[in-house]
Amino acid sequence: MLAPRTAADVAAQTTAEIAAYMRGASLEATRPNAKDVAALKAAAAPGALVYLSAVPSRPQEEVVAQAQAVRAAGLEPVPHLAVRNFANADALRGFVDRLTGEAGVRRLLVIAGDRPDTAGPFLGALEAIDSGMISRNIETIGISGYPDGHPRIAQHELDRLLAAKIEAAEATGLRVEIVTQFCLDAAPIIAWLRRLRAHGVDHPVRVGLAGPTSLTTLMGYAKRCGVRASTQGLARNAGLVKRLLGASAPDGIIRTLVETNRDGDLGEISPHLFSFGGVGATARWAAAAAAGRIELDREGFEVQAG
To answer: Model's pTM, two decimal places?
Structure first.
């Protein structure tokens, strides 16, 4: 007869599961400088995926040098390809060729981009993927997912676009993963993942989460990115002990996702951390969690100093 599991046994299992989940984390950085890249190299595991944001006000060519620096640090650069920024097909093809040739890029996150207009023929990611221009030397692309909805696009249209982008990518031989907008509440993420799997979409999903940052900064990014429902959810929880000092971390969401997915019904998922609180701080927090240096609490977990 097996001895009953103790609370310590359950806690040890949960800690190990969280650590395993965090070992698959990717990070997102905006215009990382030499100091940021050094911090990433010091904290992140070799080969970790580092997504490089496209900034509408900056030339996209800057991303080439950033990707080179990330590659030189032993990490895997994943630039955002904001297709509305390109004046024509040749410009897009030339930029992708520079990324693959000069920085060894093999993965891209293909997005429309934040600019309200378009510089050329690409209205959104679908047109660029369907053109076949991205597939040369690129092995995997990420496409956007929105567990919290989109402020300007209806859910049925999001569903249609997601399915069409997957079909277009696979028709050109590209592997596909879905990378979501960050969300501040586990419930909509879980509901969205279950609906995705119920519709037969079994592709890997990188779940967007805000890395550790101040509550004020987090609320500002949520407002800017249109993460409205989750912002309300966070506000409802503002009295929790962890929030009293104005700090926020995604530990509660991570723990809920890990515990919910023990039977695998959410499919292949991994965390994707937005570095609103700084690239180095985010990478160190993720590394500590991946090493199991955490202590469970009522809501999630606390990362312990190494």
So the answer is: 0.91
